């Protein structure tokens, strides 16, 4: 059986500052991979997603460089979390442990973890509606239909009579 401390898998996602050059980004990624390996873990893959727009402004920035790094091993997580927190090159990070269900499925199938690939930028697609599909409104030659006139509200006397009749039905009969 393999080392049980290596059985636990984590998905690490961190956001690097957008002003870092390509070399600085690669150096940061390599440094975080080294932290995992130096503390007894294993980096399964590293998937830089590139520059993405943030959901909200962080430290006055609207964009960040996302990096996904699935890892295996328990011992390295604390140190990696500490380093990601104090490193000035990272804006935010998230470390998620796989669930028991995912773990059991992976053991049963003997498969490696799913590496989340970088999402490709969608191409600008201009959809044109086919002319046959566009329904044109027919020109109306008929006159508009008249709106039905509502009946005038009942007089105050007839409303009082109806209320009295309703009150009478609520009282028990002897």
Proportion of β residues? 15-25%
First-to-last CA distance = 88 Å
How many strands, what sense, and barrel or not for the largest sheet? 5 strands, antiparallel
Mean pLDDT score: 75
Low-pLDDT residue intervals, each spanning 5 or more residues: 122-135
Within CATH, the superfamily of the domain at 4-107 carries the name Ribosomal protein S6/Translation elongation factor EF1B
CATH class categorisation of the domain at 4-107: Alpha Beta
SSE string: EHEEEHEHH
Alpha plus pi helix count: 4
The CATH architecture category of the domain at 4-107 equals 2-Layer Sandwich
Over all CA atoms, what is the radius of gyration? 34 Å
Apparent shape: elongated
CATH topology label of the domain at 4-107: Alpha-Beta Plaits
Task: Describe the overall structure.
The structure is a single chain. This protein has 174 residues and is α+β, with helices and mostly antiparallel strands. The chain has a domain at 4-107: Alpha-Beta Plaits (2-Layer Sandwich), CATH 3.30.70.60. It has helices at residues 22-38, 75-86, 100-109, 156-170; strands at residues 9-16, 42-43, 47-58, 61-72, 90-97. Strands 1, 2, 3, 4 and 5 form a 5-stranded antiparallel sheet that branches. Helix 1 (22-38) runs antiparallel to helix 2.
Looking at this protein, list some descriptive labels:
alpha+beta, 5-stranded antiparallel β-sheet, elongated
SSE order and pairing:
Layout: E1 9-16, H1 22-38, E2 42-43, E3 47-58, E4 61-72, H2 75-86, E5 90-97, H3 100-109, H4 156-170
Antiparallel strand pairs: 1-4, 1-5, 2-4, 3-4
Helix pairs in contact: 1-2
């Amino acid at each position: 059986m393999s080392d049980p401390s290596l059985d636990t898998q984590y998905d690490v996602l961190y956001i690097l500052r957008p002003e870092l050059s390509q070399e600085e980004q690669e150096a940061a990624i390599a440094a975080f991979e080294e932290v995992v390996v130096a503390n007894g873990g294993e980096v399964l893959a590293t998937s830089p997603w590139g520059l993405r727009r943030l959901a909200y402004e962080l430290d006055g920035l609207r964009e960040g460089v996302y990096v996904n790094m699935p890892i295996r091993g328990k011992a390295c997580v604390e140190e990696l979390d500490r380093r990601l927190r104090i490193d000035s090159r990272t804006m935010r990070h998230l470390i998620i442990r796989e669930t028991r269900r995912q773990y059991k499925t992976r053991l049963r199938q003997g498969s490696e973890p799913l590496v989340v690939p970088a999402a490709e930028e969608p191409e600008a697609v201009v959809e044109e509606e086919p002319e046959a599909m566009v329904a044109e409104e027919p020109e109306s030659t008929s006159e508009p239909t008249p709106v039905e006139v509502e009946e005038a509200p009942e007089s105050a006397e007839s409303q009082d009579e109806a209320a009295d009749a309703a009150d009478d039905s609520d009282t028990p009969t002897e």
